[in-house]
Design a protein that fits this description.
Layout (H helix, E strand, L loop, with lengths): L4 H6 L7 E4 L6 E5 L5 E9 L2 E10 L4 H16 L4 H12 L6 H16 L3 H11 L1 H4 L9 H13 L3 H21 L25 H12 L5 H11 L3 H5 L6 E2 L4 E4 L10 E4 L2 H8 L21 H14 L10 H13 L4 H8 L8 H6 L5 H16 L5
Antiparallel strand pairs: 1-2, 2-3, 3-4, 5-6, 6-7
Helix pairs in contact: 4-5, 5-8, 7-8, 9-10, 9-13, 10-12, 10-14, 14-15, 15-17
Length: about 400
Amino acid sequence: MVLTEISVKNAKAETKRREIPDSRVTGLYLIVQPSGLKSFAVRYRFGRLSRKLTLGPYPALGLAEARRLALNALSAVAAGKDPADEKRRKRQAIAGQNDSFEKVVDLFIERHAKANTRDWRETKRLLQKNVVPWWQDKALAGITRQDVHLLLDSIVDRGAPVTANRTFAQLRKLCNWGVERGIIDASPCIGIRPPTIETARDRVLTLNELRLIIKAARSLGFPFGPIIELLALTGQRRNEVGGMAWSEIDIEGRVWTLPGDRTKNRRQHILPLAPAAIEVISGQPRFETSRYLFSPGANPPSGWSAAKRRLDLALAGCGAAIEPWTLHDIRRSVASGMAAVGVTLHVIERVLNHVSGSFGGIVGVYQRHSFSDEMRDALERWADAVTDRLPS
């Protein structure tokens, strides 16, 4: 068939990889991956060998330009040159220079992750901890699907299946970005599924379990002790509390103003604070070297996994038998706990800074009531409940 701009755009992915030939330029193919990604390639014979040269991804490379590049490649073949081999040699010449995996990771973080994601530090951590040690001097173009499988298997085998999923998600983004930038022709992650099937968590900590967690957290000291206590008092996200800055806190007004660049939905979140939360915040040291409440340096604290292990040990030391739980379970448990003390759903959603649910669609457009009084009452009621019977 003669490929057209419309037929290329509308070509559908199937369960297997498709190669659709262009009858106008013999040897030119549209490649459609099961994932839906498309690219152009030209097939030819060089001597007795059947060869393939990937021209580039669609839509970055259009049909007209793909035909021009294909004709140039076929002309080179007629002149006794192998364009695929020349391309491979050029890549090998720069391997270990500007397309080594370690340097591509650095470029990806600076050019893409920092500009487009709030959690770029987590992206950097996952890639540098789990992937760079395997491939740091290897050219990204030389990484195969088998390499990816071996990497993910190694993470699963060390007992971290969820980390394998998170690492794969960031690696896939990096490779897709590498295709867009022309660093590689095709992603080695194509056709690979996340190594572990995850199920949504529904663990809700009881009021007594939260009290035990607060008690154990107080034994941890700075910085994670007060951070975990504030998680239980406010229901906010881990990184929002951990990255709390003094400039965000109005002690006298008892208000925490989270700027949009620190929230998941990128909307400013003004949260009233219960006296118990203000007491925790007021007790923190101020560092001239830092704007953060919980760090003396230029960055928020890190080491959440180690802090959680210490917390579990502290709980065990108190004789508390709590079923397995995660720090994120605290947020879900605060929402459930506030409902149990009579807080209405729409106020809980305001506390959690949710923009779906009661405030989704047209309601979110026209509903401009701040609910600040309702949120303050809800958080004070919740703080009274969760700190009841705790030692002062």
